[in-house]
Amino acid sequence: MKIGILSRKADLYSTRRLREASEARGHDTRIVDYIRCYMNITSRKPRVLYASHSLTFDAIIPRIGASMTFYGTAVVRQFEMMGEYSVNSSIGIARSRDKLRALQLLARAGVHLPVTGFARSTKDIDGVIATVGGAPLVIKLLEGTQGTGVVLAETNKAAESVIGAFRQLDANILVQQFIAEAGGADVRAFVVGDRVVAAMLRQGPEGEFRSNLHRGGSAQAVKLSPDERKLAVQAAKTMALRVAGVDMLRSDEGPMVMEVNSSPGLEGIEEATGVDVAEAIIRYIEKHARPGKKRERIQG
Predict the structure, then answer these.
(1) Of the N and C termini of the chain, which has fewer Cβ atoms inside 10 Å?
(2) Last residue of some domain: 144, 178, 212?
(3) Same domain, 221 and 142
(4) pLDDT of the chain along its 300 residues, tens only?
(5) Does one domain contain both 238 and 208?
(6) Which domain-ending residue is among 152, 178, 204?
């Protein structure tokens, strides 16, 4: 097969591992900087071009950065219009990047989530704090990634101050129930298709409630319960993602989904678990992108 990996940098761990796994299985693999792609949007003959040459693949693996979501999803959508298989759809990527929309879709599907509030006016701060049960609570910027723009407010007064400050900057925020019993840890379940292929427990450093590895957290392999596996797969399917990193908290009420990531990194989970996640992704593509295979239609 001819497989294209859409990534800004060929030397990123995840991009490199996907290329290695693809080539090890005999596929013609090319890494393409999607920002350098441009599109010919023409009836009946859409094209994606790079340096004046048309690009065609049997399948593409989008690795779209959060800051390039708009243009990146446009490129993926153009490949989809050409009838090419994308392991993650443009719709799925866009859904996951809009945190508010993602939570609304997950809630509608019955996915267990921390109680979440959203408001626009500073006049409604008290009401939105009460919605999530009061302090301590977590305040999140909608545009934040990798733990940035996430604040733990331990009192209602602190929450009012932080929310007011963010709104003065015209920032959109979510207010979310704080799951104290999680102890600064969360679970990353790596979903490929309809199963979890690897999972790790991430623990934040002492005094830090965020467990992101980019913020100094540690990780180790973890065995998921049947309920956690089922929840992770359900969350990925709700987002219309075939490959996803689903972040969950272990609460007294059972597992809760925090976020669904459409471009989950491979380095942390492969090192923590020893699982060849890249190969699992390539094997999934081989099974579902072969010629003549009926493609799944995803509604927006």
Answers:
(1) C
(2) 178
(3) no
(4) 999 999 999 999 999 999 999 999 999 999 999 999 999 998 888 999 999 999 999 999 999 999 999 999 999 999 999 999 999 999 999 999 999 999 999 999 999 999 999 887 777 888 888 989 888 999 888 775 555 678 888 899 998 888 888 877 777 888 999 998 888 889 999 999 999 999 999 987 765 556 555 555 788 999 999 999 999 999 999 999 999 999 999 999 999 999 999 999 999 999 999 999 999 999 999 999 976 554 555 444
(5) yes
(6) 178
Residues whose CB is less than 8 angstroms from the CB of residue 270 and which lie 6 or more positions away in sequence, other chains included: 17, 198, 276, 277, 278
Q: Of 23, 27, 24, 60, which is closest to residue 263 (Cα–Cα)? A: 60
* Structural domain boundaries enclosing 52: 2-95
Token readout for 289 is 């992108």
| Residue 109 covered by a domain | no
Residue 212 lies in a domain: yes
Backbone angles phi, psi at 218, to 5 degrees: -115, 165
Q: For residues 91 and 98, is the Cβ–Cβ distance under 8 A?
A: no
